[in-house]
Amino acid sequence: MKKLLIILLSVPQMLSAQTDVNKHNIEWNTNLLFESSSLDKSFLNTMLYGGYITDSIKTNWINAGGNNNILYSEISNGLSYTFEINNKTFGFSFADRNILNASFTDDLLRLAFEGNFHYQDKTLDFGGTSIRADRFQQYTLSYGTSFKKVKVSTSVSYLSGNHHLSYIIEKGSLYTAPFGTSLDIAYDISAFVSDTVSLNPFENNGNGLSFGLSTEFQFKEHTIHFLFSDLGFIMWDPTSITLAADSNFTFSGIELDDFYSFNDSLIDVDNSTDDFPSSQKGKFKSYIPATFHFKISGNTDYKYFKNYTLGLQGKWQPYLDDTPLSFAKIGQGFKESNFKTLYYMQSIFSTKFCDFIPTLSYGGYSSDTNLGLALSKGKKHNFTIGTHHLEDVLKNSSAKAVSVYFNIKFKF
To answer: Within 13 Å and on the Cβ side, how many CA atoms surround 190?
Structure first.
């Protein structure tokens, strides 16, 4: 590792001695994001700081969004270094990433907040629930070149997996008979947990790779840009825990003639399958969220709005590595990412003191219309701070998203 660091630090110095046209960039990025399609900031505050949850608050949470609720959160910090020589760009970056991606139905919220008493002779469906949490470090090497009017860059990353937790409920339901005389429970659950022996946040419990590709070219007066990034996976160690269960239970209740004669034989449970939840240790693969991005930009004749950008983004992250690579799996990855195509338009409003960068977008994990705003100061040395959800800053407790990002860049 020491030899690798010496090589990485010495290469730019050797190249600098060979030419005077080198361009060096050091950049720091921080991104904090909490986004929900239904649950608002009051839910987050209650979970973090506690408080009394009234029936009306529970009802508002359940009815806040559609039948499928998405919850996504990411906290990441990264440092990168790039240098350019003879129209070629070399780079190295490091990032620490923490990601939570969850999807659950309203019926699961009803069961968690209200129980099943009010749903007699009804079936609560909690199938399609997924909870995925990852912590890992990403080390990336990148290379870019240009010829004529086309720019191409590639990247490869080593992923050092720290911790992973995922629960995938493909099918799940609970039927409560009138007066609670019986309960019918059916579920198909898969769960994966990395080794929990060590609580060290930087413990290495898995290794993986990811790839990226970017291309940019001119078409008349427009710049076309297409890229994908973070297309990769982590293979977790054999000490990881996996669980799979597919079962149906019928619980017919307990009838007591004498409370003091209660014993286990009075419990009537009919298990229609013999597949009880059982855990074992072994390897498994998980995917990180990949990004696909297409945008077109150009300049305008307006004094303040000097340019514009129109674009769309998609995410790809399948639950499991259970099918071969095919068009079906590609579609599966887009669907199971919990991300709906994001459409956006952006411009730069230049002033004497700084640049204002407004963004109007629709879609994402919340499927809402969002207003973003960033402030950027400096050309050679630049500082940018912004949010993707400016409108939620003004909503206080009813906000469904909280985000802030900042970027510091030095050129020399």
So the answer is: 11
- Residue 337: partners with Cβ closer than 8 Å, 6 or more residues away: 101, 289, 314, 315, 316, 317, 318
**Position 244 in a domain:** no
Cβ–Cβ under 8 Å, residues 170 and 133: no
**Residue pair 66/37 in contact by the 8 Å Cβ criterion:** yes
The C-alpha torsion from 261 through 264 and 266 to 267, rounded to 10°, is: 140
Residue 42 sits in which domain range? 2-188+199-238+287-411
Q: At 147, which helix (H) or strand (E)?
A: strand 129-147
Looking from the CA of 125 toward its CB, the CA atoms found within 13 Å total: 6
Is residue 39 domain-resident? yes
Number of domains observed in the structure of the chain: 1
Alpha-carbon span 168 to 276, nearest angstrom: 16
pTM score, whole prediction: 0.85
Higher pLDDT pick, 367 / 343: 343
DSSP for residue 397: G
**Measured in whole angstroms, how far is the alpha carbon of residue 12 from the centre of its chain?**
34
The residue type of 124 is L
Q: What distance in Å separates the CA atoms of residue 240 and residue 213, rounded to the nearest whole number?
A: 32
Question: What is the structure's pLDDT at 228?
Answer: 96
Q: Answer yes or no: are the C-beta atoms of 224 and 296 closer than 8 Å.
A: yes
Q: Are 364 and 389 in contact (CB under 8 A)?
A: no
- What is the structure's pLDDT at 277? 58
pLDDT, residue 36, reads 87
Q: Please check whether residue 246 lies inside any domain of the structure.
A: no
**What one-character-per-residue DSSP string does 159-205 give?**
EEEEEEEEEEEEEEEEEE-GGGS-EEEEEEEEEEE---S---TT---
Q: Which two tokens stand for residue 172?
A: 């799940």
**237 in Cβ contact with 205 (< 8 Å):** yes
DSSP 398: G
Domain containing 291 — which CATH number? 2.40.160.40
Place of tokens 């992250």: 317
| Domain contains 374 | yes
